[in-house]
Amino acid sequence: MEYSLYYLNKQANLKNLKITEIIDKLNLIGFEVDDIYNEPLLTNDLLNDTRLLIEIPSNRQDLLNEKFFLNEISTIFSVDTYNVWNRLQIKYSFLIENSKHKHINLPINQINSDLKDIVIYKFELENCFTKKSPQWIQQKLKSRGVSPLNDLNDFLNLITVEYGTTILSKCNKDSKSEFVIKRLQINENFENFEIPAGSIVLKNKLNKIVSVLGFVNFNEPNKSGQVSLEACFYDIYSNINKLNTINTKLSFKYLRSMFIENFEVALKRVLSFLEFYNSDLALVVVASNQKAKLTFKNHKTISLSKNLLRQVLNITNFDYEIFKKANLKIIGETNNNFYIQILAVRKDLNREIDLIEEYSRFVGYKNFQEILPKKSLTYSSKKLNNYKYIQNFLINYGFNEVFTNSLVHKTNQTNMFSIDLQNPLNKEINTLRTSLFPRLLEVMHLNLKAGYSNCNFFEIGRVFKKSDKQIIEQDKLAGIFQYSFAKTNAQQNINWFIAKGLLEMFIKSFGYENLEIFELSNKTKYFHSTRSIQFRVKNKVLGTFGEVNPMLENFQQLKEPVFMFEFNLVHFKNWRMKSEIISYKDYSKYPSIVRDLSLTLNKKIQFSTLKQFIQETTKNLININFFDIYFDPIAIDKVNLGVRLEFQKNDRTLTTLEIDTEISNLLKCLTKEFKIEV
Is 73 a residue whose pLDDT tops 90? Predict the structure, then answer.
């Protein structure tokens, strides 16, 4: 933002300060001076001026207008400011108290609105023929980097510069219309722009959009000298809903620099200009919603802990002059707290830490003693310890940790319920991820393409999902791998059983017993059509695992299978620490007996269900596994399963007769329950 030293000196006495002092002070206080201009304001102008290009912090939108910037200058440099405009202010009370103007007798049409904290006034001008504005106005606009055009345009630009209040100028005449303020339910067109749903608009009785709040535009009067003006105040801080997505040259500044104090005085000022410099002008208020009640407060109060102020700034005593200098008015004080009153326009001051920052800004950061904060080096977090355990476990098995973007393209989502961004910076990444799979597949592909063979990756990251119109965040663990590493660090290809066994070992390390495996019900495009499962414990889904779909793009040419998994970390909060006491059980000194069974059963029966049934039915069984599986091409609904049973007792050797009896009873029960064939 450009500011003229000439005009600053006319309103705030900075003449006793050198320009180097001014720049150093502004930089120190947080207003960085990016550049300096020395040139005449106008062509053939004898008035030379020094202009400063000052970078206004993003949280200080109030400083975009001259009035509040001058208040800040007076505070920083401890100088007085002067009110250089009081002409005609009394005459033009807020929005012309009389309902009729002396030139045109038209009633005021009430603007209907159900929206809070919005005030709109429309004016119609007759005989408004543009000409050059006075030179002093041209000079002031040029000093702020605004090019002069004509008197009407310059008047409106001037109050924007001075007060941050923007008044729209439009050629159309809607004097006989009835107006209503609405929030659009669907997208509508206005002046060759598509106005999105949710935008606040002003409509006439024909349901036609007259103007859009935030869509700032200037139009010249028509040939007959007719032009309409629209003055609006909208408190964006009291309205939660988003205004609109239309961006024009001035809309961003317009929507974030509206302050009710400035709105009133700016309106008086522009009306005085219009009448004073154009004696033939006829003006009337044709419509307003002046009955709207604003819930605006001039000040707000924030409590500040004295102990927190001492702790953060490492001070013992408080300088009350600093509070006064920083416009932090102390309206109350106790042994423990200050009660600070500040202007409501200071939207950047909402918390205790904001007040501390403001206090330290005026003390001067260079005046604080450089002391490192005291922090404990033995910080312990249960969550961090969990993550550290997971990282160490997977790294020990040859995985590499990666960190990927949480934004993906909509086509890469694992389900149809995508969470779209309203204003994506990149069209290629326009939705929040619902799974870690898409990015891991991308990482795998890029590494394989580059010729790297060690392609085992995992990520601990956050995913998002919709639930009852709310967005829920979840921490997940996902991995993709193709190889295993033996103790010799030799790279080996792995099959389904080895990959699944690794994840089962991982799950059991967290203390889970009686792990169940089910077929994945909700198929995704990322998994093989028949090689994907769920890990469950007591009907609680821990995660998913499967072979990557070989038909996916970039994975069709691979000779060896690739496996993926994803776990919800909410189920992995604790694990068995090595320091935990584990009860010791003696190994049996008597030999075990192994029997293999070949069972033919319906392929819809889960092995986990079969395993649990066998464990509950059979005595002295210490282990059960399946070692072979065969699908008969003729009996397509059947599967042949090879099951290995291991029996053992701690006090004696089991006899063959005992084992045969157990097997016989087991087969009878299996036949009755699952209709198996032996």
Answer: no
pLDDT tens for 389-412 read 889 889 988 899 999 988 887 766
pLDDT at residue 154, as a whole number: 87
Q: How far apart are CA 142 and CA 135, in angstroms?
A: 10
Measured CA to CA, the distance from residue 644 to residue 593 in angstroms comes to: 11
Q: Which class is domain 109-288?
A: alpha beta
Closest CA to 448 of 406, 403, 480: 480
Say how far residue 396 (Cα) sits from the centre of its chain.
Answer: 36
- Report, as an integer, the average pLDDT of 248-260: 57
State the pLDDT at residue 106.
37
pLDDT above 80 (res 373)? no
Give 299-363's CATH code, choosing from 3.40.720.10, 3.40.630.40, 3.30.56.10, 3.40.50.10490.
Answer: 3.30.56.10
Q: Count CA atoms closer than 13 A to 209's CA, side-chain side.
A: 21
Are the CB atoms for 8 and 31 separated by under 8 Å? no
The pair phi, psi for residue 90, each rounded to 5°, is -65, -40
302: left (phi over 0), alpha (psi -120 to 50) or beta: beta
Q: Could you give the CA distance from residue 88 to residue 119 in angstroms, rounded to a whole number?
A: 23
Start-to-end Cα distance in the chain: 87
475, two tokens: 């921490």
| Averaged confidence pLDDT in the chain | 77
Cα–Cα distance measured from residue 589 to residue 64, given in angstroms and rounded to the nearest whole number: 86
Residue 568 and residue 545: Cα distance in Å, rounded?
Answer: 12
Distances in Å between the Cα of 285 and the Cα atoms of 106, 114, 216, 319 are 8, 21, 21, 51
Contact call for residues 492 and 560 (beta carbons, < 8 A): no
What is the percentage of the chain residues whose pLDDT exceeds 90?
A: 12
Instruction: Find the length of the chain.
Output: 678
Q: What is the mean pLDDT of residues 232-244?
A: 54
d(CA 308, CA 128): 60
Which structure tokens are listed for 422?
């309203």
CATH architecture of 593-674: 2-Layer Sandwich (3.30)
Would you call 124 helix, strand, or coil by DSSP? strand
The residues facing 332 across adjacent strands are: 339
Strand runs labelled E in 299-344: 299-305, 329-333, 337-343
Question: Identity (one letter) of the amino acid at 138?
Answer: Q
* In the block, residue with structure tokens 């032996």: 678
For 447, left (φ over 0), alpha (ψ -120 to 50), or beta?
Answer: alpha
Q: Are 92 and 256 in contact (CB under 8 A)?
A: no
Domain 382-571 in this protein, CATH class: alpha beta
20-37, pLDDT tens digit by residue?
888 888 887 778 888 887
